[in-house]
Amino acid sequence: MLLLNTKDLIDKCKSGDRKAQQMLYQRLNAPMMGVCIRYMKSVEDAEDVLLEGFYKVFINLKGFNYENENAFFGWVKRIMVNEALMKLRKNKDIQILAINEDLDKEIDVSPLSEMQTADLLKLIRSIPVGYRTVFNLYEVEGYSHQEISEKLGVSVGTSKSQLFKAKKLLKDMLNSKDQEYGS
Question: What is the pTM of this model?
């Protein structure tokens, strides 16, 4: 099969073409695995989420109206994020803590932007799952606190608290890394 554009590939997938489904999976596998791994603690869990997510993509593809590649990519990404959140909820991995901080303080995590992607991912994956989930949804995916509260079934204040604590923890971890290396 020739290299198809995304719209043609989707059309072939909608008609049940298995080779087209395989090509679409191969095209989106790596970036969607990146999405899944940000939420899950282990690679195995991320792979499970990825496979469940692609299953839902292919099941729901007939109802998807293609506008452009970015819209399609966003649609698939939302499915992956929702699958990750469902797995975290199902396994009762999301432990949201109560608000007890003054949330109006802004935490400077600018050193994060200077880190290598792999090191940054490793650091983010090491924080507690509740913090990591809200951090990813807010900072990476661009969801508002209102949207996060609806997705996770928590209050807006709890979402803000989790983000605050995630940033504080990441900053403390970065500061301790700097001290370890004498920078």
Answer: 0.74
